[in-house]
Amino acid sequence: MTTSVIFRLCRSASALPFRIPYGPVLNGCQSHIARMFASAPLHSSWIPSGRASTTKEVVPQDVLPLNEYINKRTQLRAFRSTIKQVRRLEIGPLASITFENYDLLWIQIQEMLFIEQGGPEQVQDELAAYNPLIPKGSNLSGTLMFGIENVQQRKAMLGTASEPGVLGGVEKCIELVFKRGGAEHRIPAITVESEEIKRYTPEGRTSAVHFLRFDFTPEQKSAFGSRQEGDTYIEITHPNYRYWTRVDTSTVQSLAQDFD
Fold it and tell me: What is the DSSP letter of 242?
């Protein structure tokens, strides 16, 4: 590509309806163009879980230096989108859940490091924040989100410091349900909380985002991943938001890989 063509492309890129992030280790228009058109598929050796020393947590030596991550960022983000197509489910008109795994959370950690560039201290902070969400072999992990764009509706649904919300307590009303061999299994969600951020209050205020864990017994793990026929679905049983959605076979197969 000639210098004049690169210059014209760079000029036209400024009119695009989205922002192209610029990292400190990238210099010049050529870097922008390379990243815009980096459409090669992700090589198997770059799949995070394939390179990890353990897939139960991200350890410091598994975190890429910023310049290495930037070189593969486009492909890794596309890889993340592919995973989410299988592991993200809509539950009714407002809610969705993404079942997390090592690959998704490794990329999230790298994205936070890319955006904030906080150095080694930030690495430890991100590991502490996201490692509890990685499945540990006997559980599934999910991020539940309520998409409520209207500010007044969001306050009414989630609550405020002085008023309980319509969805108050919803974080305690989520279950993963599956039937195998004629037996029904109901796995209640457990909220994963941090000391810094309280996502709900006893008075009825809740959050638009909840981090959830679904703990399985050995028998439930075996049944979930078996080839026996039976439906699987995720259900919200809150009196003001009763919805469920079916989990299809491809998603069940993906989730079963989170177990030992």
Answer: E
Of residues 205, 202, 207, the one with CA closest to residue 165 = 205
Query: Exposure of 16 by Cβ count < 10 A (0-12 exposed, 13-18 middle, 19+ buried)?
Result: exposed
Does an H or E element contain 98, and which?
A: strand 95-100
Task: Say how many CA atoms lie within 13 Å of 36 toward its Cβ.
Answer: 16
**Residue among 246, 245, 258, 249 at smallest CA distance from 227:** 249
- pLDDT tens, per residue, the chain with 260 residues: 433 333 333 333 333 332 333 333 333 433 343 343 344 556 667 799 998 889 999 999 999 999 999 999 999 999 999 999 999 999 999 999 999 999 999 999 999 999 999 888 899 999 999 999 999 999 999 999 999 999 999 999 999 988 999 999 999 999 999 999 889 999 999 999 765 566 778 788 999 999 999 999 999 999 998 877 889 999 999 999 999 999 999 999 999 999 97
Residue 204 three-state SS: coil
Q: What is the pTM of this model?
A: 0.80
* Residues paired with residue 69 on neighbouring β-strands, in sequence order: none
Residue 58: other Cβ atoms inside 10 A: 24
Q: Up-side HSE of residue 41: CA atoms within 13 Å toward CB?
A: 4
The span from the CA of 254 to the CA of 167, in Å, is 30
CB 229 within 8 A of CB 219: no
Q: How far apart are CA 170 and CA 59, in angstroms?
A: 33
Closest CA to 9 of 46, 38, 34: 34
